[in-house]
Amino acid sequence: MSGLVNTSMPASLAKRHNGSPWAPLREPLFHSLWVAAVISYTGTWMQNVGAGWLMTQLTMSPLMVSLVQAASLLPVFLVILPAGALADMVDRRRLLLITQGWMVVAAAALGIMSLTRVVTPWTLLAFTFLLGIGAVMNDPAWQAITPEVVSPSQHAPAVALNSVGFNVARAVGPALGGMVIAVAGSGVAFLLNAASFFGVIFFLYRWKRPHFPDMETGRMSDAILTGLRYARGAPVVRCVLIRTGAFSLGAGALLALLPLIARPHGADGYGLLLGFFGLGALAGASVLHRLRGRISVDGVVAFAIVVFAAMTFAAGQVENFGWLSLILFLGGTAWIGILACLNVAAQTMSPSFLRARTLSVYLLVLQGGMAIGSALWGAVADKVGVPTALLCSAFAMLAGLLTVKRYPLNSQELTLEPAVARD
């Protein structure tokens, strides 16, 4: 989806959004970064499949399996706010080079340990956590550089294309990862993930990022507090955060417990199911593009949450691979409808000098809610079974719809241009 729209969208913004959703790819800088990012995302999805599947080979405990996703998201509670402040205080290019290098080392080390068969369930969780640290430190700066590599008029479509790229990788990466795991094992998938970061590293190394005069100065604690005060005081930010939290707590159950659902179908079957989820997200992105301007953003999000909750429940009720593929496809279609709207809202809810810090708060709510949910629904599944846990998580998402009327997601035509660089 190329932007958030409602019935009161300004005419100038509506005119801007009538262009092709692929227009940002005509800009060489954004195109190069987008291609490198898709390759990196593909490696990340191979990593996710490998970690989830490896845990089912080490233990069949639903809690331990769900903790793989929780371990990757847990660092959001520890470092996301400092990461956002740091991304507003230092050169984002250099920060990204450091975080990308961190993830190369962590993925490669886990790959070598897996191939030498010295990995244990807790070792797997530890290195998944270390990768999560790198990803969380990376995220605010990564999302904040979008307006720096694309022209101002293409910012919202570029944000949407970032989601499309992520879901292209979601469609390809799991299926590819499943085949690699079936043939060579999870360790090779981890090493391929380590290699996938080098495209982004090469782009960042060659990118001549200008200096921005509105960079935050002073102590990190003061920068964090400034971002938190803005997030607390701005009504548009509060609406985005509350709506994100209401969804995220229940949203993590399906993907966290999917390795157990897919176990009868093998590693390649698990990868294919995640691939169908990604294909559904791609299909959903094209549908959203056609719907923009016709349905309010709240209508799109509410409908998509109902569909995703229904698919979460259904995934616990069927075992046939064909039906599971359809359920994951429809779930992916709904997923992109929700996340595309929330992501664009988060990208446009603050001025440029606060963007990374407010994005870090958004990511804290989104990923933190999913981390808590992953552990919670894994514990529930341990006690009452996977189908009941998925049913409870579906009800949690539907209950979150009570926030729609009081906390609407409205269009914001903010100044999206990056600050002017000094000569």
Report on this model:
This protein is mainly α and 423 residues long. It has one domain: MFS general substrate transporter like domains (Growth Hormone, Chain: A). 76% of the residues lie in helices and 0% in strands.
What's the CATH first level? Mainly Alpha
> Helices and strands: which structural class?
mainly alpha
Describe the global form. globular
CATH superfamily: MFS general substrate transporter like domains
Identify the notable features of this structure and list them briefly:
17 helices; Growth Hormone, Chain: A; mainly alpha; disordered N terminus; 0% strand; 423 residues
Strand-helix topology:
Blueprint: H1 11-17, H2 28-58, H3 62-73, H4 75-89, H5 92-115, H6 121-144, H7 155-184, H8 186-196, H9 198-206, H10 220-233, H11 235-251, H12 253-262, H13 266-291, H14 297-315, H15 321-347, H16 355-384, H17 386-399
